[in-house]
Amino acid sequence: MPDNPTPSEQTPSSGGYQDQVIKGHKYDGIREYDNPMPGWWVAIFWGSVIFAGIYVLGVHVFDFIDTYEEDLAESLEQLETVRTAYAEANPTFEADPATLAEFVGEEQAIEAGAQTYAAVCASCHGAEGGGSIGPNLTDNYWVHGNTNMDMFNVITDGVAAKGMPPWDSALSPEERAQLVAFIQSLEGTDPPNAKEPQGELYE
Amino acid sequence: MSTLSVSSSAARQERPSQVELFTYDEQIVRLFVLATIIWGFVGMLVGVIIALQLPFPEANLGEYLTFGRLRPLHTNAVIFAFAGNAIFAAIYYSTQRLCKARMYSDLMSRIHFWGWQAIIVSAAITLPLGMTTSKEYAELEWPIDIAITLVWLVFAFNFFATLRRRRERHMYVALWFYIATIITVAVLHVGNSLALPVSFMKSYPIYAGVQDALVQWWYGHNAVAFFLTTPFLGLMYYFLPKAANRPVFSYRLSIIHFWSLVFIYIWAGPHHLNYTALPEWATTLGMVFSVMLWMPSWGGMINGLFTLRGAWHKLRDSAVLKMFVVGITFYGMSTFEGPLLSVKSVNALSHYTDWTIGHVHSGALGWNGFMTFGMIYWLVPRLWRTRMWSDKMANTHFWIGTIGILLYVLAMYTSGITQGLMWRAFDEAGRLMYPDFMETVVQIKPMYWVRLIGGTLYLGGVILMMINVWKTIKTAPKRLPDPAFAVPKRASAPSDGEQEVATA
What we know:
The structure holds 2 protein chains of 2 kinds.
Chain A lengths: L6 H4 L10 E7 L2 E4 L5 H22 L7 H22 L7 H7 L3 H19 L15 E2 L5 H10 L15 H13 L14 E2 L2
Antiparallel strand pairs in A: 1-2, 3-4
Helix pairs in contact in A: 5-7, 6-7
Chain B lengths: L5 E2 H7 L4 E5 L3 H27 L13 H33 L6 H21 L15 H23 L8 H21 L1 E5 L2 E4 L3 H19 L2 H15 L6 H15 L14 H13 L1 H14 L11 H24 L1 H7 L3 H30 L7 H33 L13 H38 L9 E5 L10 E4 L2
Helix pairs in contact in B: 2-3, 2-4, 2-16, 3-4, 3-8, 3-14, 4-5, 5-6, 6-7, 6-8, 6-9, 8-14, 9-11, 10-12, 11-12, 12-14, 12-15, 14-15, 14-16, 15-16
């Protein structure tokens, strides 16, 4: 147990601190200096306490900092502006049996639909449309109808009870129409390991 | 403490009636050190396995070894088995010396040790079986919770009875941190674990809904505070000045940062529930207390690093000091990051992303891990009265551990910020750019491999330490009698009056 002062106790100061050992403070050989707290430490500590007071008053009393609800409303408003501007610049595609028919059988539409399908549909309906969590899309059995419009509506609104999500906010109407074109192109492909038929038979 | 200068017979002859002899229980410290190393290896090995399971799902084997079952096993093993045994080793070693008194009861120390190991084993069995309360870091079911409470009370009684019988008038700052740890962990554990059992291994909390969430994160955040911070600050305040042989930088700072830390920490929990059903005033409270916590936390870092003024040259030859410095530096970084992440607008980006995982691992691997390793490399040669088998190996442990942490946290920061930005991205039409969760998973998968490499390096360091400690112990003398001391016979002896003596 060395009782001798360590070298620095003999040197006058270090880094602007006096480094005076406190008398009587010696615990299993550990000594303590009587140095003050660093000024920047004290200053930031007080600063954080003042910030805390201002922040609490700002959010909950004087309302100069946004609450969650105000934040959300503001962001939704901005989003609406973006959506409106986009809709004005890009005339909307209105899905009806006639406009959808223009997509079905169209090579480019099928190709684009295949890409969207691989990205969002394949995980439930199988990479080749044979079905897994979701039904088989290659046979003649359909749970919610087999017209172009039926398919478009299922993709758009989803089927909440069966776990099919709605895609109206994630996919544009054109993308949904391309998907219809792709799915119609799958009919009769009969991929390996396809799921058993579900729904009604449409000839 | 390494030299035993005066033989006991000589001491008795000189001052036969005025001195009292006492010994320290070192066997209990040796037990806790060994348990720390073994559970550290187990907990981190499970960590590496679950890090593999994320980018390589085929590694989820069977029902019991899936990510969902192993993840709580990893966190419980690392926090309560590795860090837990480490702080008990630190407390049993330093408290006896700071009090100049043997632990009050050797039996209680053994009940604490074996009880705690039994709790860990029961956790390692029940969690893979799927028996869980599903409360994070409090997954263990009610019979184990009761066992934890009982063992903790034995530990507390033993500790406070030792404090009461101390031969030192003042209590050194390390002891204050231990006191805060023991009292607060008891309150937190009991408060959060209150539950109605419905069968032998199933219970439901007495709190419901958002109140349950609030109590859970009051507990969860303060598990970080009073299990992974205060005891490790106590550890630092004892082992760092001992290893550097330097006085502590500022007594005044230690008082102020202790009281501000324990007072402010307990309010910070609601920042885990930003942007949830918790009323906003409560999350505001959690956020501002977290911001105010920044400097109290840094007070510990400053007192640690400034204690090394004039001793930095010692780092070159000492793996112990190198580990302490990196540990304290990671403590400083993660306690800056914590307040930052609690700020609502930052949290909006970081919440539910891997940033959180990076943050906790900078604390766990950097602060808790390296402080523990530093302590082990300092303690093992003293406890087994020999030299460390290989200093070079200890240095290698330091370097691959440090590189491991850096790879780990950088991978998680990258992946976390990527996730946060992708989830909030809109395209020019005002639609979500990445509506599918899978798109972010594919994007961050490479980072999961980097994390696996970092974690494996860190585990490799621990394996080096296991070998090193094993080889060291093999060179230890057969008999390791408890070190004996003599002090003048008085109610409270002045601290300079002791003589170190060897037992016959």
